[in-house]
Design brief:
The chain is built from ten helices and eight strands. Strands 1, 2, 3, 4, 5, 6, 7 and 8 form an eight-stranded mixed beta sheet that branches.
Length: 282
């Protein structure tokens, strides 16, 4: 499956992604990753699979006007949304459309390469990581994160089970693919094989917050590739299906509800590695 087939949002999905999923999920993990990377003033940063740019914006603020931030994504809709947002203080951000498998930059152009919750979607992860390695200065580093096991991510697990039960047995495949790199042993071997001799992997858990299960399910079905799962239903059938999914997910996540609000744990693996011999970050 190609990069485009793995993660291609259309229509207003990127705007909905920015409005709902960035505050609830991706900004939380982007801040965590930027903190662990300990960016310094003047550093050169590449954000691969940048989406609407939440991590690139954090990096721009932290490296300051003397730094450089380039952000790349395959999806033109995501980049259009990224460009439409107000600029932040710090380094100007260069937005690039392109593939992680063939990065359009010269060797050793960056001090750090980020990849926020994106590596699992690449059609050739090893090739992407080799490209990350090519991008780095001799003392450069990577900082990336991927979702942990679906069993440790209750909201995803509940939605996947509901999709398989209500739509068809493989309806959750695109959602389960988010957890394709959940095994730390496999993940470490993958990164080492791309030319990073020492790799540090940390597992962290944070709380996913949505106003309700209804909000969580509807956003997942509108602002992620799951939209395609119910795209062929007519309006009435789609509404009935969404209501059924909300009912199932609500029952599965009852223990995580406070009044109607959803407070659910989410687990991520964080990978830190240097192009040299030590994975210890600055």
């Amino acid at each position: 499956m190609s990069d485009r087939e793995q993660w291609q949002l259309e229509g207003s999905a990127p705007e909905m992604y920015q409005r709902y999923l960035v505050p609830a999920i991706t900004s939380v993990w982007a801040t965590d990753l930027a903190d662990r990377a300990a960016l310094r003033s003047g550093e050169r940063v590449l954000d691969v699979a940048c989406g609407t740019g939440v991590l690139a914006r954090l990096a721009a603020e932290r490296v300051g006007t003397g730094g450089r931030v380039a952000a790349l994504d395959l999806n033109p809709g995501m980049l259009a949304t990224a460009r439409s947002l107000a600029p932040v203080a710090g380094a100007p951000i260069e937005w690039h459309q392109g593939s992680a498998l063939a990065l359009p930059f010269p060797d050793a152009a960056f001090d750090i390469v980020f990849c926020q919750l994106g590596l699992q979607f690449f059609s050739d992860r090893a090739a992407a990581l080799r490209e990350f390695r090519r991008m780095l200065a001799p003392t450069g580093r990577i900082a990336l994160n991927v979702f942990g096991p679906i069993e440790h991510n209750p909201a995803t697990r509940a939605l996947a089970a509901a999709l398989d039960s209500r739509v068809h047995p493989d309806a959750s495949a695109v959602k389960r693919a988010e957890h394709a790199l959940a095994d730390p042993v496999q993940l470490r071997a993958l990164v080492r094989g791309a030319g990073f001799p020492d790799v540090a992997i940390h597992t962290a858990q944070k709380t996913l917050r949505f106003p309700s299960v209804t909000d969580y399910v509807r956003v997942q079905l509108a602002a992620t590739p799951l939209a395609g799962v119910i795209a062929n239903y007519d309006s009435a059938a789609r509404d009935r299906m969404v209501d059924s999914l909300i009912e199932d997910v609500s029952a599965a996540l009852a223990r995580y509800l406070v009044d109607e609000a959803l407070f659910c744990p989410q687990e991520v693996h964080i990978v830190l590695a240097r192009s040299g011999s030590s994975p210890t970050m600055p």
